[in-house]
Design brief:
Elements lengths: L2 E6 L4 H12 L6 E8 L2 E8 L2 H8 L8 E7 L14 E2 L6 E8 L2 H10 L9 H16 L3 H9 L4 E8 L6 E7 L4 E4 L5 E4 L11 E4 L4 E6 L3 E6 L4 E2 L4 E2 L15 H7 L1 H9 L3 E2 L4 E2 L8 H6 L3 E5 L1 H18 L3 E5 H4 L11 E6 L5 H12 L3 E6 L5 H5 L2 E4 L12 H21 L4 H12 L1 H9 L2 H9 L6 E6 L3 H16 L2 E6 L16 E6 L5 H13 L3 E7 L4 H5 L2 E5 L7 H19 L18
Parallel strand pairs: 18-19, 18-20, 20-21, 21-22, 23-24, 23-25, 25-26, 26-27
Antiparallel strand pairs: 1-4, 1-10, 2-3, 2-4, 5-6, 6-7, 7-8, 8-12, 9-10, 9-11, 11-15, 12-13, 13-14, 16-17
Helix pairs in contact: 3-4, 4-5, 7-13, 7-15, 9-13, 9-17, 13-14, 15-20, 16-20, 17-20
The structure holds 5-amino-5-deoxy-1-O-phosphono-D-mannitol (M6R).
Length: 614
Amino acid sequence: MCGIVAYIGHKEAYPIIIKGLKRLEYRGYDSAGIAISNNGALSVYKKQGKVSNLEALIAQESVQGTAGIGHTRWATHGEPNDINAHPHYSSDGKIALIHNGIIENYDAIKKELINKGYSFRSETDTEVLVHLVDDISKVEGVWYGEALRIALNHVVGAYAIVAISPDFPDRLVAARKSSPLVVGIGENGEYFCASDASPIVEYTKNVVYMEDEEIAVIDRKEGLKLYNIGDQPKTPYIQKLELELEALEKGGYEHFMLKEIHEQPRSIHDCFRGRLNAEKGWISLGGIRDYEQKMIQANRLIIVACGTSWHAGLVGEYLLEDLARINVEVEYASEFRYRNPIIHENDVVIAISQSGETADTLAALELAKSKGATILGICNVVGSSISRITDAGYYTHAGPEIGVASTKAFTAQVTILTLMALQLAHKKGTISQSRFHELLSELEAIPEKVKQILAKNDHVESISKAYKDASNALYLGRGSSFPVALEGALKLKEISYIHAEGYPAAEMKHGPIALIDENMPVFVIATQGNSYEKVVSNIQEVKARKGKIIAIVTEGDTHVKAMADHVIEIPAADEVLVPLLATVPLQLLSYFIAVMRGCNVDQPRNLAKSVTVE
Ligand code: M6R
């Protein structure tokens, strides 16, 4: 939610910041803005809508200066318009700042400031902060960095902030709590700040991931200094980025989403590379080795997540219960954190998050930790907040996911959960040696099978044409294909704005069947397995009401083919691994339908990739 980027060095700041904003646009695209410091003054430009609108606004201007800040917004307080766009600045134009997060007590602070004579241009919580910093600076007679530190001691909420003042032309000040912030260290006094490393990687691989309640004073002459908000100095921990620039480009695809769907053979393989050897019959999950016994003996494994990651958690529940016979509960992080859940010290709480920054998931973990539970994480983004607060965890190694709709992150999460379930089952002795070996070989073969599904790209595209004008859609599946149905429905609704619902196939009779008529597309996962016959009956029930059936079937299936309006065949696989395959055609269907409807698939309306507000 909101992307922030800043630069100070010896080059022109504007092109670096605008490029950075484009990389961060997936975090929000309600408005964009920049402030550049030059010759004792700030030039501020802000525009509703995408970064390209801001660029068009600035096109005729000559923006110069070697220090600046930029922001791309996902609106929380105040509608998306030019005035509410960041940066926000003090009345005298001497302090400007960008902010990602929410200042929860902004209303009380605002009233105090209004009583002191401050007036407000915008409806945002962020503008409150800039006037507060200005006020403290004037009343206490301190420079704006110190004023920001004092102000943050009065603030309740979440923030990643970068502030700039033309009176201190060599400096930027950055601070974070609960929203991510990375500082990049270039050469010869060149520094970068950003919500993630994507705007930085082109210039340097040396970064410092800021911790909660840290303030960074970034001075191109004096270097980077870190403090906590109590003003105690801290030593910056410099890490090397592993991210490569190519991973952030579209690589010839029309959209990031399509690229990321097509990357799945590689991303699934990268996920188990070095962790699985089918020939020798072992799984090695270094990240959680020390916690395996704890997981086996745990009262319960509680998976907390949101959105697509929650769907991956549901697949994990089937796998862990079926293979390892461990009691698993899957919780929406947002519900879990607020309903006074019963958490025991011998519970293991596992957070699943692509970004590793989702506010609700992070808060759910913090709650579990405070109750003494062991907390583990499954994250994609290296160095993210969740990966840093957990006792141990796994990285999914899917590579950067830029499309707002999660695709390769989902299959990577499911791959990790499969490895986890197999490893625990093996250790616990709940599956036979031969089944363990068989499943390892099957898992190793999944990337090749995903490749075969992706080769049906054009067939899926042609099916999509028939459903691009639908107003509603149903997705049905049983067993571990039920969460796949939920995920299929989420993909369709979030990028094409078609109302879609996922259901366990048998639940259809308990209500949704009333919706079925000749206009209703029903996507059914009807692969070979234990509930195949039952799903076939559900298909017949839909057909009897003239619904349109689009079935995902196992290669060679003729039975469902005879009933369905369209089928997409996927290679045969053990039932346990079907979610990794059945998901892929559903992703492609959503993608093509959204493209045919003229939707912006990479940046669907109202959404942001990383939900760092609750
Ligand atoms: O980064 P996370 O996995 O924690 O994000 C959770 C959800 O916001 C996310 O999965 C969302 O539902 C997807 N972008 C949907 O495709």
